[in-house]
């Protein structure tokens, strides 16, 4: 692991606070229109789905934030008359793991047309003659969903999309248009995945931390600003120094409150070392002795939402991913990379973020929450 370059704690802490403030103020709706079509053997686009979404690139998959409504229209371009039983559009979401069927936790289906429903122009047809037809739609995404957690149904916030290469599971959202045909004719479906992003509003830092950021002052530690820090249980480190004498140092790691950090920002940390041996304190406080890691875990299975020690979880449903972010001594910052996935507490699919300090220490904080600003 390489040393990180020098940094200004105030500018980065201000960046973290600014991101939290932006999340609190909400996000303005802007983006593009995503389109996807079904074609016949002659490359004629006979069924097209158009969706307004937050993605700035019209060729990227659609993206929606918590509280958004999915708005768009479905176009049917008929070259040859054909009887159709119904046209529907639905939103589905589910978790999938390698070798297993999808476990669906969300389904919203709307019928755009059947023979008894008027067309948007007010007319009624039993079958579609040659021409172009269009149906607008609006689907509201819920902010919560009721899911079976173990043997009990509970309400959880709608989780973020999760998909990465070489990861055993993923959480996917889909938008599907179905043309239901009569008789033995096969139904036709037009499907696109889309990204869903929860909106998280972090609480503000302590007044003293806000003052330090605003006035570009040194950050006060846990002793002077207890409300500004989440202090973890102390760990005693015992060992032999210079192969000659036994020493003991007490190490206490603290992270700045609140334990909710936006991606692309920095989490202030403070490590306090206490002991009676000055040489031992000097050795442990050197950059080569202490490293901080940001670790993400993915828990699956029936106990995914239960907070367990890593050693208590089965190796086939618990996966750790580490990203070394540099060495920090006494007081510094841990980078929360923009590529980090948001934290998620959801049945059978829970991701947690921890800060781990080692070696020779092992101090872990698993109460952190990472979100997309």
From TrEMBL:
<dbReference type="InterPro" id="IPR014752">
    <property type="entry name" value="Arrestin-like_C"/>
</dbReference>
<feature type="compositionally biased region" description="Low complexity">
    <location>
        <begin position="13"/>
        <end position="33"/>
    </location>
</feature>
<feature type="region of interest" description="Disordered">
    <location>
        <begin position="1"/>
        <end position="34"/>
    </location>
</feature>
<dbReference type="InterPro" id="IPR014756">
    <property type="entry name" value="Ig_E-set"/>
</dbReference>
<protein>
    <recommendedName>
        <fullName>Arrestin-like N-terminal domain-containing protein</fullName>
    </recommendedName>
</protein>
């Amino acid at each position: 692991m390489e040393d990180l370059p020098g940094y200004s704690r105030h500018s980065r802490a201000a960046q973290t606070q600014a991101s939290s403030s932006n999340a609190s103020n909400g996000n303005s709706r802007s983006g593009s229109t995503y389109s996807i079509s079904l074609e016949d053997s002659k490359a004629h686009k006979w069924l097209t789905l158009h969706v307004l979404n937050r993605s700035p690139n019209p060729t990227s998959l659609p993206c929606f934030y918590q509280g958004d409504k999915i708005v768009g229209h479905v176009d049917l371009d008929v070259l040859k008359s054909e009887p159709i039983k119904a046209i529907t559009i639905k939103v589905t979401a589910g978790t999938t793991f390698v070798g297993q069927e999808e476990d669906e936790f969300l389904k919203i289906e709307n019928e755009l047309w059947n023979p008894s429903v008027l067309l948007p122009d007010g007319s009624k047809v039993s079958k579609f003659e040659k021409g172009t037809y269009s149906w607008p739609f609006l689907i509201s995404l819920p902010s919560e969903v009721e899911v079976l957690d173990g043997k009990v149904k509970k309400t959880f916030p709608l989780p973020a999309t999760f998909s990465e290469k070489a990861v055993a599971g993923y959480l996917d959202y889909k938008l599907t248009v179905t043309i239901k045909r009569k008789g033995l004719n096969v139904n036709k479906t037009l499907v696109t995945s889309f990204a869903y992003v929860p909106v998280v509003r972090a609480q503000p830092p302590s007044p003293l931390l806000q003052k330090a950021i605003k006035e570009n002052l040194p950050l006060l530690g846990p002793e002077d600003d207890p409300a500004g820090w989440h202090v973890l249980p102390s760990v005693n480190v015992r060992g032999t120094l210079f192969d000659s004498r036994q020493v003991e140092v007490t190490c206490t790691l603290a992270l700045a409150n609140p334990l909710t950090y936006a991606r692309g920002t920095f989490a202030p940390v403070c490590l306090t070392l206490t002991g009676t041996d000055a040489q031992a304190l000097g050795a442990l406080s050197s950059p080569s002795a202490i490293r901080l890691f940001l670790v993400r875990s993915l828990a699956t299975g029936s106990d995914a939402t239960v907070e367990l020690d890593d050693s208590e979880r089965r190796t086939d449903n618990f996966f750790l991913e580490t990203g070394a972010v540099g060495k920090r001594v006494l007081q510094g910052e841990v980078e929360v990379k923009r590529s980090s996935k948001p934290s998620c507490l959801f049945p059978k699919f829970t991701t947690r973020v921890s800060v781990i300090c080692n070696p020779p220490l092992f101090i872990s904080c698993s109460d952190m929450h990472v979100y997309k600003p």
